[in-house]
Amino acid sequence: MKRITRIGVKGLLAAVLFSSTVLAAEKKPLFLKEGVWRGVFTVNEANVPFNFELKGKDPEHVVFTLINGHRRDDFKVKRIADDSLFVKMNTYDAALFAKIESDGRITGEYRSLVPNFRGNALPFVAEAGKKYRFIEPGKDVKPAYDLSGKWELQIYSKEPTPNRIGLLKQEGNKLTGVIMSVVGDSRELEGTVQGDQFELSGFTGPSPIYIKGKINGDQSFSGELSLGIYNNVKFDGNKNAEAELPDPYKLTYLKEGYNKLDFTLPDLNGQQVSLSDAKYKGKVVIVEIIGTWCPNCTDQTAFLAPWFKKNKTRGVEAIAIGFEQKDDLEYARYTLGKLKDKYGIEYDILFGGIADKKVASEKLPALNRMMAFPTTIIIDRKGEVRQIHTGYTGEVTGQYFKSYVEKWNKDLDALIDEPAPQDVASIH
């Protein structure tokens, strides 16, 4: 009887092992369909759409590309389970956590990865093959007005807020554009005009942006701009071809009695670095105050890194001072190291502390105030500050960007051509 029982148990175990092996063999990792997808975030009670493309049939080499008008941002996809994926937002310490459903859809959340940061996750769902943004094909309503042009936006908020400028382009129902402020730009936004209503959204890695508005009878408009969950402001817009933002070269300046900048901060290896170090003596020095969490900062880095690589032998140095979402050098070594690797940075990167304008102002006491990340400070061969630029506006701003680049090259060429002080020239 005991022998029969043992045989029965062995047979049962063998059957279980065999069936498990068969099931494991049959259970293949779910994979995503190649092509364009439409995702929708739920932000408060609003649906904020975004589009992306997936390329690569090999699960280990998939590229996830966010689409915003003409802009494309690529990210790597990592499988964390048979039905789950992880998309790190490159240098931004956030990611999409996605589950592949049995019907082929993706569901998931956008989450911050900052240690001990109590951020709010944004849920989303995405479907393959849907290329539209807001309105399904065939359901458009004739626009009441063409919004193409420059718009002056009056912002209403608890804190005094400078006006912003909207540069919009409309083709039929499709609306694209960018919102410019004294600290930078929104990156390219994409949306639609339906009757007297319009919507725009943008998602490039940082928190999604959503704008909703109504065109008034006098062809002005009113609306609300949302960045993430808590940053929401109302605005009125009036078309104004002459509208301009405050001069970015006059917003941040040295306090009375100062003509130089001074700081001593650790690099990513913990070594203290100062502008008084021999490395910078007699050279033109570009000091860039940034944060890896800041999209305008990464856009500025994408401009500065190749420029420096091309010009570094001309007697110019650059320093990036990063203020990060955690006041910890080890954490900054990770985030700023990612930035260095992605953009091939060949200049020094220092850690300034927590991402806070008040803290940045304390670390750089010669400045009247730290108004924006990024802020660019240009120092001549004598060690004197010659220019400070607040914020950064990228290629999507068109002529604004072209004018910035032209002035940048003209001013840097002139400073580089200046002779170094005699005592420094003899050393070099």
Automatic annotation (TrEMBL):
Heme among keywords: no
CDD domains hit by this protein: TlpA_like_family (cd02966)
UniProt keyword Disulfide bond present: yes
Domain of life: Bacteria
Database matches in InterPro entries: AhpC/TSA (IPR000866), Thioredoxin-like_sf (IPR036249), Thioredoxin_domain (IPR013766), Thioredoxin_ResA/DsbE_sf (IPR050553)
Family annotation (Gene3D superfamilies): Glutaredoxin (3.40.30.10)
Signal peptide (UniProt feature, chain positions): 1-24
Record key words, sorted: Cytochrome c-type biogenesis, Disulfide bond, Redox-active center, Signal
PANTHER family: THIOL:DISULFIDE INTERCHANGE PROTEIN DSBE
Name of the protein: Peroxiredoxin
